[in-house]
Amino acid sequence: MNIGNLDRIIRIIIGAVLTYLAYAGILGPWAYIGLIPLFTAIVGWCPLYALLGIQTRGLAEDVKPQKKR
Questions:
Q1: Which of 4, 11, 15, 64 could form a disulfide with 38 if both were Cys (CB 3.0 to 4.6 A apart)?
Q2: pTM of the model
């Protein structure tokens, strides 16, 4: 996974808005490209980021909280 939480939220919002605008006929069919950021946000991995060596997921997101005894 190479997409951080903030990046995922932004992708979901942009993807949902573009997809809705395409579905409603406000924008042309090209706006269905919004499905790409939606998909990458759900999966948590962006192939373009991987190709360019970009990672918005921080180290703090990789650390899982330990259970208290």
A1: 15
A2: 0.77
CA distance 58 to 4: 7
Report how far residue 38's alpha carbon sits from residue 11's, in angstroms, rounded to the nearest whole number: 6
Distances (CA, A) of 41 to 9, 27, 35, 53: 7, 22, 10, 17
Per-residue pLDDT tens for 18-69?
999 999 999 999 999 999 999 999 999 999 999 999 899 886 566 566 677 6
Gyration radius of the chain over CA positions = 15
Place of tokens 């269905």: 32
